Amino acid sequence: MRFYDQxxxxxxxxxxxxxxxxxTYRRNYIRSFARFIFLFATxxxxxxxxxxxxxxxxxxVIAGYSHQTDDYAFVIYSGITIQSTxxxxxxxxxxxxxxxxxxxxxxxxxGMMTSGEGDKIVLQSTGSYGAHWSASSGxxxxxxxxxxxxxxxxxxxxxxxxxQRNILPxxxxxxxxxxxxxxxxxxxxxxxxxxxxxxxxxxxxxxxCDGVPTPKSVELTVKADANTGGHNHHDSAxxxxxxxxxxxxxxxxxxxxxxxxxxxxxxTAKCVDGRCGEDTGKVWVGVKDLTPLSGxxxxxxxxxxxxxxxxxxxxxxxxxxxxxSIASAYKILVQxxxxxxxxxxxxxxxxxxxxxxxINSTWARPHAEHCRGTVIDVRANDxxxxxPAKYYTEFELIARFYSADPMWEVPPASSVLLPPLWEQRHxxxxxLGGEGLACPx
Amino acid sequence: MxxxxxxxxxxxxxxxxxxxxxxxxxxxxGVVVDPSTRTWAPPVTRTEYxxxxxxxxxxxxxxxxxxxxxxxxxxxxVTFYPRTKIDPAxxxxxxxxxxxxxxxxxxxxxxxxxxxxxxxxLRTEITSATAGSVVEPPGWRGAAxxxxxxxxxPIRLNWANRGNGLAPGKSEKGFRLxxxxxxxxxxxxxxGDAPTTTWIGTGPEIDxxxxxxxxxxxxxxxxxxxxxxxxxxxxxxxxxxxxxxGIQKHVKDDMASMQLIDPALLGPIDRSLTQAIAAAQGGNTxxxxxxxxxxxxxxxxxxxxxxQDNDADDDDKEKKPKPRIAKLAAKVxxxxxxxxxxxxxGDKD
Lengths: 441, 349
Description:
The complex is a heterodimer of chains A (about 450) and B (about 350). Chain A has helices at about 1-15, 20-30, 150-155, 315-335, 390-400, and strands spanning about 40, 50-55, 60-65, 75-80, 90-95, 120-125, 140-145, 165, 170-175, 185-190, 195, 200-210, 210-215, 215-225, 240-245, 245-250, 250-255, 265-270, 280-285, 290, 300, 315, 345, 375-380, 405-410, 425-430. Chain A is an alpha+beta fold and about 450 residues long.
C-alpha cells in the first residue's frame, strides 16, 4: 500500500498546518467526486523545463490516484512552479483521490483543490511505477521519472526539498491538443511594375481557413531587395516604400507607394498569430523602356559612372535619339579642328530604371531631374573633353534645333556661405524640353 | 445696394488678408546670382540675409524674370532672360520650284525698331522638306531635323543666327527650303537673342509653383508670326483626293482654330471641298475642276490679288467690308487649289 504510506508520511510532515486545509478540501472534493471519476490529462508537448522551488518547511501535499492497482501514485509537491514555454499549456488534469480531488493545471491553476496553491504545483511520478492515464482527444501521455537523484531522494523521503533546481518534465504528451484549421494568407492586386513615387491602390491580403474567408489579423511588410534598380549599394537607410495600412483584419485593402529609388521590392503578408503561413509578391519599381547609350559610339563619350551606380547613361528612346543627333551634329561641326576638338563628353543621364539618382549613395538628392531618362549632363568646364568655350553658342544652337533645352547648371556648395562650384559647371540638357522632368521627391 | 457693396468689400478684404497671410516671406541666408555675361566667367554670386519669397517676378524695366527658388533648404535668386523682347515681321513667299512638283518656300524677316533684342532664331514644324534644300542667309545656320518630341509635325525647321542676331530695324531674306508638300498656315516661333541662364542646381523644381510658372514662361518664350509652311501631305504618285482631303482638314481644323477664316465662309468652302474630293475619288475630272474654279472665285471675291505672285500678305485693313479670310490664308489656299488644278490637268499650264 505504497500510496497510503506516502499519504500518511506526507500528512505526518504537515502537522498542524495542512490538516485544517485538508478538511476543507475534503468537503469540496467529496461534492465533486461524482464529476471526476476518470483520470485524464491533456497537455501540449514541449513542457521543456520546469522550475522547482521547494518551499522550506512546507509539507508536500499528497495527491494521486490509485486506479485499479496501487502500482502508481503521485505526489504533489507544493511550492513547485511550472514555468511553461509559450506552447506549454496543460489543459486539464483531473486526479481522483479518495476525496475526489480535481486537479486542473490549465494555466497553472488547480481547479478545485488548490485555491491556495494553484500556480505552484507539479505532478511528479514516484519513480518506477508508471501510471495509467486517460487522455482526451487522442493524446498519449507518459510518465517520465525524474532523472535528478536529488529529486528522487526528495520524493522517496517525502520531505520538503531544499533550494531550487530544474527538473525534467514529468508528464510528456504528444500530438496537438486540438486539430487546427488550415489557414492561408494570400496577396492579390500587386502591380507588376510601378514608377518611383507612384501610389498603387486596392491591393488586398485575404485569409482563408479551410477555404472560408476568416477575419484574422494580418500584418504587411515591404522591403527593397539589395543591389537592384541600378543601385549597386545597399544599407538599412534604403527607403522600401510604404504600405498603407500595414496591418488589419482580413480582408485588408491597402496601397503601396513606391519609393524614390528604383529596384525590386518584396511585399509580405502574414497573420499576427503566425498560423496562416505567409504570402509574398514582387513589385518592379522603375521607369519602363529606358535603354543605355552605346558606349561604343564615336560621336560622344560616356563618362562619370561609378561602382555604386554602374549604369548611369540610361535614357528614353526619344531622348536617346535627341542626344545622339545633337552629338552627331556637334561632331560634324568640330570634325576638322586642328588640334582636334573632343566629341561631347556625356555624364550622368539616368540609372537603369530611373528613379532617384543618388550620386552620393545616400538615397537622396542632389541630382535633380535625372529620374526619367529625359535629361543628360554634358561636360562644359575645364575638365578633359569639355566643350570649349568658343563652341558654347554653337552647342546651344544645335541642341535647340532638336527642341532640347540646354541650361547651365552650377552645383551648389555644401554651405550657403561658400560660392557655388563653378569648376563643376556643365550643361544640364533637358532633351525633351519640358517633358519628363518631375521626380518623386 | 450699399450693404451689398459693403459685404463685397468685406469679403475682398478678407480674401486679401488671407492671401497675404498665406504667402510668407522667409528670413534666411541665400545666394543671389548677378546677371551673367557671355564671357563665360563665373557668375558673380553674393550671399545675402534678407526676406526671401519664392516665385517669379518680371522686372518692369528690363523685362527679365527674377526667379527665387529653394533647393535643399537654401534660397537662390537667378535672372531668367526671355527671348521675347523683339518685334519681328515675317513675310512668306511660295512658288512652284523650277522643273518639278516641289514647292519653294522663302521667308523675309524684319526686326522692328521697337525690338530690345536682336533676333536670334526662327523655328517651326513642318511635314517634310526636300533633302538638302534648306538654305540660310550668311551668318545663319538652317536645318530641318527630325522632331523627336511626342507631339507636333515630324520635322523641325530651324534657322538660328551664329553671331549677334538681326538688329532692330534690320531685315534679312534668303531663308529658303523646298518641299513636295503643299503650303498651310502655321506659327513661326521667332526668338530674341538672350543669354542662357545659369542656374545654381537645376533651378526651381518643375512641380513647384515657381517651377510651373517658369515652365509656362519657357513654353511661350518666343514671338509667334504666321507663315506659309509645308503642311499638306502630297503623296507620290499624285492623288488629288488625298491632297484635297488634307486641304479640307487644314482649313477646318487649323485655319478655323486660328480664326483665319470666318465661319460664314468656312461653310461654303468646306462643302465645295467635299464635292471636289468626291469628284476626284470618282474620277470626274470636269466636276473636280469646276469645284476648284468655284473655290478660287470665292477666295478672289475676298482678296482680289489672291492669285498674284507677290509676297504681300498684309491684310487690307482699310478694305470694306472686311475680308472673311486672312490674306495669307487665302493666298495659301489659292496656291494649293491651283497646284491641284495644275496636276489634274497634267501640267499643261
